[in-house]
Amino acid sequence: MRILVINPNISDSVTALIGSEAARSASPGTQLTLRTAPFGVAYIETRFEAMVGAYAAANVAAEHAQGHDAVIVAAFGDPGLAALREVLPMPVLGLTESALASACLLGPRFSIIAISQRIQAWYREVVHANGLEGRLASIRALDRPLARIDGIQEDHSQALLALCERAVAEDGADVLILAGAPLAGLARQLAGRLPVPVVDGVSSAVRQAEMLHGLQPGSARRGSMAPPPAKPQRGLPPALAALLQDAQARGASA
Amino acid sequence: MRILVINPNISDSVTALIGSEAARSASPGTQLTLRTAPFGVAYIETRFEAMVGAYAAANVAAEHAQGHDAVIVAAFGDPGLAALREVLPMPVLGLTESALASACLLGPRFSIIAISQRIQAWYREVVHANGLEGRLASIRALDRPLARIDGIQEDHSQALLALCERAVAEDGADVLILAGAPLAGLARQLAGRLPVPVVDGVSSAVRQAEMLHGLQPGSARRGSMAPPPAKPQRGLPPALAALLQDAQARGASA
Amino acid sequence: MRILVINPNISDSVTALIGSEAARSASPGTQLTLRTAPFGVAYIETRFEAMVGAYAAANVAAEHAQGHDAVIVAAFGDPGLAALREVLPMPVLGLTESALASACLLGPRFSIIAISQRIQAWYREVVHANGLEGRLASIRALDRPLARIDGIQEDHSQALLALCERAVAEDGADVLILAGAPLAGLARQLAGRLPVPVVDGVSSAVRQAEMLHGLQPGSARRGSMAPPPAKPQRGLPPALAALLQDAQARGASA
Amino acid sequence: MRILVINPNISDSVTALIGSEAARSASPGTQLTLRTAPFGVAYIETRFEAMVGAYAAANVAAEHAQGHDAVIVAAFGDPGLAALREVLPMPVLGLTESALASACLLGPRFSIIAISQRIQAWYREVVHANGLEGRLASIRALDRPLARIDGIQEDHSQALLALCERAVAEDGADVLILAGAPLAGLARQLAGRLPVPVVDGVSSAVRQAEMLHGLQPGSARRGSMAPPPAKPQRGLPPALAALLQDAQARGASA
Amino acid sequence: MRILVINPNISDSVTALIGSEAARSASPGTQLTLRTAPFGVAYIETRFEAMVGAYAAANVAAEHAQGHDAVIVAAFGDPGLAALREVLPMPVLGLTESALASACLLGPRFSIIAISQRIQAWYREVVHANGLEGRLASIRALDRPLARIDGIQEDHSQALLALCERAVAEDGADVLILAGAPLAGLARQLAGRLPVPVVDGVSSAVRQAEMLHGLQPGSARRGSMAPPPAKPQRGLPPALAALLQDAQARGASA
Amino acid sequence: MRILVINPNISDSVTALIGSEAARSASPGTQLTLRTAPFGVAYIETRFEAMVGAYAAANVAAEHAQGHDAVIVAAFGDPGLAALREVLPMPVLGLTESALASACLLGPRFSIIAISQRIQAWYREVVHANGLEGRLASIRALDRPLARIDGIQEDHSQALLALCERAVAEDGADVLILAGAPLAGLARQLAGRLPVPVVDGVSSAVRQAEMLHGLQPGSARRGSMAPPPAKPQRGLPPALAALLQDAQARGASA
User: How many CB pairs below 8 Å do chains A and F form together?
Assistant: First the structure.
């Protein structure tokens, strides 16, 4: 199968981190296309940045989704995920949603380990939007400035490990989620050293995309995930306009 | 005070509806600036359309907010509201949030009357994101095609009245919310004819903006509504880029 | 417009605090009538005291509401609020409900700063009854004896400021609510010194009363906020008996 | 043991219904004192009426509680229950709380059968305040005028039975609660004819009072059920003033 | 009345603890039969152990329930409780459910004091399954190895008292629940020394069984607590097979 | 990889249905071992039957899990799932949990289609235990007698299709879950004919097992999913006793 992996942010070095972990995670026969947002910010900590990232991801998807069997929005927090799910004909996955799905199969309560204090409020809202706040043991986050977004794993390895251990010992976490594309691959490294199962978003999203591709559950012609009803549009970038128009046409013929 | 009212959609005729009701609602001394999104769709029923509307609203705000004391995002569902609240220095209000605030002062449980079946899922998610699903009696919606978005009030007046009455009689609504910019002004017309208080988003948002302007509660320098932390950005439209940069600078100096 | 502001407690000096902040908050053209409960306790910390305050507020309203456009029950916790809303023909507001409505327009999560340890349980129940516990970051309270109920702001200014700062730094509050009539006016003083928006109940209630007066949303003839159905009564104080009888009659003719 | 049973309403004939069922329910050795509120309304359907009933119940308790081992507030909805629990030295029970406790021991989900449409909103709020809305299958209520409050069981027997059956068949009720003092004793009559267990408030309260008397769990000297902290009071009826003063003194010496 | 009390675990010494407290709690005229599980573990801390205990309890009930008026599953966490309630013709009670019912009549929020760190997750899930997590102030537990399961009260008396006090002072508990059969009887000893009411499961279950026996609320012929529909079975221990067959027959004839 | 698939019920013909769908779902290289419970009932509709099934599944796992990379408990409702997860060293999956994980990746709200009226209460409790009731649109179930448990798909095909369509049209389902091992494979058949994505438990569990096997997230040495602490046991079937003993030993050495 072919998966388009979209970094909704502008950091090519983070895209590389994502790509490496995605490649390590993918089954034989899975091909990955990686794309970085042409506009936006370096990484997402706030709702404004997520709003920009959502629009950027949509533009990337509009240009590149064709020919793929699944699309992954590769930022924790899943900017634009539900929006894209309405208009794309193939499964769309996000890092948070996929990590939550994996975590829920491993134990009743999970903690999320994050890269900055500010990012926690947004993550909590995303967990709430997923209806899973009842299983959230805690969110714990680094509290130091991030010198380089693509070197967090190295620069803060001890602090990240300490956050994980405290989440288990003090918050009752049965599973750990290492959150954020900049931490892609860290779960794989720490799996043996942590006292509970640990997952991250990138590997979960790749594996869950393969899982859905195997299930072939069908697509939505009705309900709130069906293509948007036809209505006038104006001024959108050509690819995005075409994406919406195609979806509307697909919906109308359903 | 000066309020910027942004229609996140491209329908000039809906902007006119919004403007009329906003003008009827405003106190003497309140000045209104109305702006229509330069790109997007005719009205919002889905998450994809809301995502586009959020980005459009942000661009309009970036170009026009300066010199205003408050900004209103004038689409029910509040696309981009929390995002703009992070970056703008003045209060930002949305139709849903404002109508919910008004409704909560009038009775324990409210129903939302909406213009299309499809729109209900998104509205329910917005109420959930506002943490108020416990007070939602029901969402009821028109189930006929909308011939013209700016004539719904006339074309479907009997059906809208019937939805209101059923929400009270069958769902236990203590308050009614007439949802969506296309219904702006209808609450005012129906207030006497309905057996419970009725509010709409536009008048609520204008009045709540005045209310906040009177309170002068201060702005956020910390917490999740403070300006986003400084980080690299690239490729955003100039006004949006400047808005984010200014916010980051304001945050850094806080 | 004319607003009746009822202190459900017997402290004239607290009524004076309320009156000062209400006057500072009111728009030009708003006239305030202040009344103190003729019986009851000095301030409310417990459910028993709230029960007494509710009945006292009802008696005051029964005697003085006529000729006013709105009524404010001026104790945090809103004793008797929903009861009065059923029987009075004009909008009725409470300090808690109004402060919550204001806070919800300023950020996703709020903390409540309170004057005593004991009062916290009751406040939590009131937030729960309002359906907003999902947005409650924390309640923090003074833990020292209160030498004089009308001098708390001066006697405990440092401690109150410290509670505010901890609510933001440790509990994730995006907005602060300074709770209780004895703190009326403090939000106004602290607004500039706190890192997030801060509101109090008195100014919120006055401004929200003006807001509702502007909206003219209509009153309840059906639903659970309509006047109580007619039934025998006996032995109530004359004004209260008349208030109930009038409401029943208004309901019967609706 | 001696139990004081307070009808917070003025209907002597309902007090008689309560007394009959209480007597049928009590164990040998349990003595019952019955008192009717000297002021208030005939029965409670609304929050205003509940507020009046709470104050009336408090006055009755203040005059008559001494010498009893438990006090029952005998109106469904439990007006004044938490307030009285703070100030009385013996256990205080309510019809709703007791019926909920019994029902929760008989099956996962319960329905409440009520005497009027209007009463349902208040009951739902009481279940919510008890934190048990997750187990509430439904509230179903008579929709006809009540010719006489003490003859509902006879006048509407078929309709009440039909409501019970629909709650089981359509709402998934595992247990039925017949709500309201006017229905006291009906559960006993219908127990054999209904397909699920059925409880009412009066018999549950009497039996739960005996249960608590047997447990002797101790009383609250701290926490939110401890006596109210000392503070000035003024103008309360003598018995109520003494009740509060005694409670404050008991609290101060704890 | 006759009550069968089943210890779902193999510890005869814990059965003796349970029996002593049950005897102290029972009213005159209540006869107790005590049975210990013939297979299983010493006490339950985990879901696996609870699963084994549930099956063991069912086997004991199948062999011994006949001739009793109520059955108590005497392990906190209530292993097998809902299952047995479906198949036994008399009321079935559990320690947790009964203690929760008692606690809810004494104050709004309760804390659970437990014997081991590991046991807390299971207890939290049981409270969640009972729909009462909104009233759970905290779970606090011993953190030392348990030298002997039948001597915890003596070996850890100071630590248990300290946990109780912290739950009141720091977590806002209005009521304390001493959880687990190994603590049976401790509530009775501590009742005078703790600042809030305290209950345990064994005495609550015995008293609540008597309470239900007095109410005679009827049994379930429909709903989810009715006997299981008839279907083939195979290979169950004879008594268990007969229990199920009898229940199916009773259900078929209902 | 090697997966052990346990039918916790005694129906060999249902095991065959499960096996066929599991085989159709498995990736090349995945080997399946199928085992039927040696004792129990034909299928699970109630908590008692689930309790029996849990114990039966544990016994089968104890005898056959060794040498496998994952274990699937193949009854909707997941009897014994959390229990087995504590004691087995490899991932353990259930039909419900796996179907929920798949459904959550396809849309916000799901409906469950079930084979009998009685089964619905149990399913709702399982969804609640998974913390996902906020995303449950409805449960709809057949209301006719089941002539043969292995022929439901054929005997009730029209009724099942109708339930699916009503869940989408009337309940707002974005995704459908066909629940219960007797429906294994039906989702595959209906996928094209239904207007929203449809999943079942068997194929989801097989694919999710492969997904987890790919992730290698590590196992629990701490938290509530770690092996049970060592304690005496007695009288368990030899394989089960050994399973528990091994788990305890693994835990002790962690």
Answer: 176
